[in-house]
# Entry
Amino acid sequence: MTTSDTPGAGDVDRAVRAELARLRESIDNIDAAVVHMLAERFKATQQVGHLKARHQLPPADPDREARQIARLRALAESAHLDPAFAEKFLNFIIAEVIRHHERIAEDSGQDPAPTPR
# Structure
């Protein structure tokens, strides 16, 4: 097939374009659901951050984080999702949560308790 034989976007069969649009709409809906779920998760972690600040608890909990990572890796495996990807995703979220908890502690006038290592 030569370059001139390669179909351009305008040459794609109408049924293929319709299927692509349908799939992309589904992806867009899933992306919206993920954003809303993350917003709900962060609302809950903000409450945890305020509770930790009031009781001078450390912003991070390495034992819980390790349990959550193991749990999420197992969930990912059962869902046929790459566990390493799931772990990277959760580590990103955990880092953001800890950053929020540190800020909440600072804003409340509390020095965040040191994180146990």
